[in-house]
Amino acid sequence: MAEPPGAAAEDAWGKVDAAYGDNGLDSALFMENARKSSIVSRANSIGSTSASSVPNTDDEDSDYQQESYKESYKDKRRRAHTQAEQKRRDAIKKGYNDLQAIVPTCEQQDFSISSQKLSKAIVLQKTIDYIQFLHKEKKKQEEEVSTLRKDVMALKIMKVNYEQIVKAHQDNPNEGKNQISDEVKFNVFQGIMDSLFQSFNASISVTSFQELSACVFSWIEEHCKPQTLRDVVIGVLHKVKSQLY
């Protein structure tokens, strides 16, 4: 076990006094030198103890720099994530604003919610409804275009037919002189209708609507056959011809 610094100093002074007392030297001078040596050794001991107790400042600086780097990296990642999230939200907001500007039904708000901002769900639903409406309108317009094309084709055919008729009249200018009068045409039509009405009146019963319907269908099947109508028309034409000539 190490002796206390004070005891070591006193022991050193005692040895110095014993060593130099016999030689007749000034003991006070040597005791003063010994005291200085003791003070220096004590100072060195205290300095080494203090140095061992003080932590390494270089290691602390290194650790601090690493912690600062970690914090800075985390802050950068956090800022980048925040910016990306804000950019995404701005894009979504712009998309909804564009939908509200494009879709007419989003502008025509009800009076009950005119003072309130449309929610995203309402904007999406109105957009879906508008798209479905556009699909129906497109289909309707396509059908109209198809019908108009058929009408155009029919008109072209009629135009060709009328051009042929006009050309035929121009090639035969005397053909119109032997045309039949409207009175003769009416007599032919009247003769055909009288014949059909006689058969119709003889075959149809009007006691009830159900019986009338059944009789009409059976009359059409029996008296309106192509061969029957042909015979009626031939008979009327012979009759009109005999009246004219």
Describe this structure in words.
By secondary structure, the protein is mainly alpha-helical. The chain is built from eight helices and no strands. It has helices spanning 5-21, 27-53, 57-102, 104-107, 120-171, 182-203, 209-223, 226-244. It is rod-shaped. Residues 18-25 and 49-54 have low confidence and may be disordered.
In short:
By secondary structure, the chain is mostly helical.
**Roughly how many Å apart are the termini?**
170 Å
Beta content comes to under 5%
Could you report the average pLDDT, rounded to the nearest whole number?
Answer: 75
Q: Give the low-confidence spans.
A: 18-25, 49-54
The secondary structure category is mainly alpha
Secondary structure: number of strands: 0
Shape call: rod-shaped
The helix/strand series, from N terminus to C terminus, equals: HHHHHHHH
How many whole angstroms does the radius of gyration measure?
63 Å
Largest pleated sheet: none
Protein name: Max-like protein X
Coiled coil: 131-158
Keywords: Activator, Coiled coil, Cytoplasm, DNA-binding, Nucleus, Phosphoprotein, Repressor, Transcription, Transcription regulation
Main location: cytoplasm
